[in-house]
Write the structure tokens for this entry.
Amino acid sequence: MDLLRGFVLGCLLLLGVTPSWAAEVPAIAAASNIKFALDKIAADFTQDTGKRVRISYGSSGNFVAQLRHGAPFELFLSADDKYIYQLHKLGVTQSDGEIYAIGRLALAAPKRSPLSLDAELVGVKRLLEQGELKRFAIANPDHAPYGERAREALQHLGLWQPLQPYLIYGENVSQAAQFALSGSTDGGIVALSLAMAPQFRAASHYVALPSEWHSPMNQRMVLTPKAGETAKAFYAYLSQAKARAVFLEFGFGLPADSQGDEVADAANKPAGAH
Amino acid sequence: MDWQALLLSIKLSCVTVLVLIPFAIWAGRFLAYRQFRGKSWLEALIMVPLVLPPTVIGYYLLVGLGSQSWLGQTLEALLGQQLVFHFSGLVVASVLVNIPFAIQPIQRAFESVPEEVRDAGACCGMSPAKVLFKIELPLVWPGVLTALVLCFSHVLGEFGVVLMMGGNIAGETKTIAISIYDSVQAFDFAAAGQMSLLLLLFAITALALTTSLSRRLGGVSVSRRR
């Protein structure tokens, strides 16, 4: 019984010393494909303003469900327009927010993959015809925006049907990227922003895919009614030049009405293989 | 290594155990000594969290305790705080999920206390409370310890429920299991590997300690009965 008593005492002590979060650090929900860019922007934001944010990354669809049921997020950065419009229709948000970045697709493969990368997916076709393709990863097209767009791009190239037996679905695009990079697949179609992240580049190659092959992926953000000063400041910060430069750096396009049109055009040109 | 998430998970484990074990001692003893109609149904109900996918429990909690349900709204009005996406919600979820892990070993231990021993205590004029504290608990404590370790370790590893109704908020609902999932998604395999290894070592140590303690210190062990 002494053991039990000691344990209870230890727990109580622990409870007493666990730091509680200050209320002025807002919780923010963000689609996982913008993780690397947003981590950087958030660090810049803290440096420039002295204010901090807590970012939770996950799938946009899951965040919509949580926000509907009262999740305390003050700002939601979705991977797609659709989710923000859904929330707005449900009366959860007061506005339908604004576009902060335009998502792009990339074909990516692990370094030892037999797949040769090109923006026309000729390499994929060739591997498929030779019967050498083992597995090909995309995000689940039923509920992940990047999966939906990957399907559109593959349909555009006439590859959707022949690829069926080889497709592996990630729950969201981060998981698809992780599958594509794992070496147990020959590659996959993922978010350019993830393919460009240093953690990913260490193990893989990528090539950006033309954005005309799929409907535009307008990544939209919105403030919730719970938003406080810091969340509002961060929301505004995301549209400023410094944050936009980071989005460009990670392979996103920018909304046309932004200040940085020339840079945005440069980023939207198809890039060579990396 | 996400220390904040680890600390939060340990805190959650402690609170869950503190809430659950006293209840499990009462419920386990009740189930061990009483025969009544519908007992097997009640025992089945207690076991449900074992077979139900955690995402199902998470879904019911999200919808049932969320701000759109009357229960969620009532609780929010009473407590001044909503349960979902909050630490208190995780406590509710952990307690529910761990009920079978807490009650089962304790019930088995009480069942193996010989009736004559309890009767002897009563014959000596001991009050029921005194019988419990002086005779029964010293005999069943290995069962209690097993329940405690099982619950504690199980909460550390809980994933599905937390993912569904926790919201992955740092310092509030981002537990170690969620942090491992996040690290893998962010290609941070070093962090994921470290945290996974820590949990693995903890689980093995906890289980080994429980077994050896029960064996060394005697009492009525769960295994001896089988």
User: Anything to note?
Assistant: The longest helix of chain A spans residues 2-17. Chain A has a mean pLDDT of 86.
